[in-house]
diphthine methyl ester synthase (Iris pallida), 546 residues
Amino acid sequence: MLYIVGLGLGDERDITVRGLEAVRSSHKVYVEAYTSLLSFGLSPHGLSKLEELYGKEVAVADRETVEERADAMLSEAADTDVAFLVVGDPFGATTHTDLVVRAKKRGLKVEVIHNASVMNAVGVCGLQLYRYGETISIPFFTDMWRPDSFYPKIQQNRRLGLHTLCLLDIRVKEPSLESLCRGKKCYEPPRYMTIHTAISELLEIEEMRGESAYSEESKCVGLARLGNKDQMVVAGSMKELLEVDFGAPLHCLVIVGETHPVEEEMLEFYAIK
Amino acid sequence: MLYIVGLGLGDERDITVRGLEAVRSSHKVYVEAYTSLLSFGLSPHGLSKLEELYGKEVAVADRETVEERADAMLSEAADTDVAFLVVGDPFGATTHTDLVVRAKKRGLKVEVIHNASVMNAVGVCGLQLYRYGETISIPFFTDMWRPDSFYPKIQQNRRLGLHTLCLLDIRVKEPSLESLCRGKKCYEPPRYMTIHTAISELLEIEEMRGESAYSEESKCVGLARLGNKDQMVVAGSMKELLEVDFGAPLHCLVIVGETHPVEEEMLEFYAIK
């Protein structure tokens, strides 16, 4: 049996009771580490907060483990119970869909244990979830690569009066360009995009394309460390949010569409005073 | 302190460890009963599965309690710890946003404990969450009332190649027309829209409007009892899904947009054989 268990967004105590039972009954426990494990106390060597709660060892499966060694992991799951832990909900990312497909192709039993993800927890800012359009991802720009495929999507959402959830780039365990050239693997330090960087990129693209999809006056909500004790939610224009220090990662951003009165009341609470 | 705790989608064991701690430490526990508590073993009188797990009494707060008596509940939360439990995630419905606004206006401390909701758990069917457009709600038609405001939204989503999540109507504790006329309250039995009814209504509207937003050949995914042990996921055309018995509620429906290869692989697993 393969359990795919969502850990939720905060810390180790955000696992569900069902998820905790699955983990405790599993022979082998992997945790996926290539999105974010910032608040779960996971270090490459030390005992993590997860291990303390579970009373058993947790193996960190980084991107390479999952993509290159999925078959070995699935073979284990054919003989015994294996739990694969994922930050947020298991279906936040394509990779996990792929893992389920592979498992099902091998005839394995798969049980998915859901949890909160940014896709629904963003509701905390007061904007109604059913009034969001397509979700976009904002990648880190480099000198040579400044993709703007998110622009027409924001434009579309705003034309329809819908809110836009912007997921911000996370770069963990990226091979450095230098190491790729030299043919041996060595990694860049992890990078998490801030709301500040996201807005700067958005405004750069707007200036280049000049189609007024949005402006520095456009109302947004910045959310940092969603689901954590010290979560931070601030509503304001892009220009205003550029001045806010949102602190440690993870960050995400919502570009506000047309609002209803209850939505506005909530945004007022989160407005910059 | 007011805790607003998401219960998730399956049964009493889908609460998070953090949520369970909040409930156990609270002086008073309410559970909101006007969306769905089908699988949580809650009866108006008997001891529920929730109460067994929590080791304390749970008061059922139906729509009237929440809307009419919110102030009394918030007064309690000013003096002691109160937990308000919600099926799914706390921000699936507007009502809870309103409760947070009221609590914050009174200067109360509010802690939201997130969980899975249909808005992210629907990812289990393999269609990527960031490729959904605006979510729609399909209401029960009556003889006099056959609203089709969802139609242009589906049309829009499909034009953009996006998937459409259709939430199906739930009628719990609706005053009967007869009782309203007689001036005393008495309620209709609960009604939960099936995938069959939803598709029939969709096709009726398409026939009336004739703008080819979709047809009986349009690919869909029907999901029943999402997050439960006996959850059912079937992919097929509207016409095909009309022939499927999805069993007990709750049901929801996805109208599929343009698909990527990994999405298609997953849909194949769920296709009608």
Summary: Chain A has two domains: 2-116, 119-270. Residues 63-79 of chain A form the longest helix (17 residues).
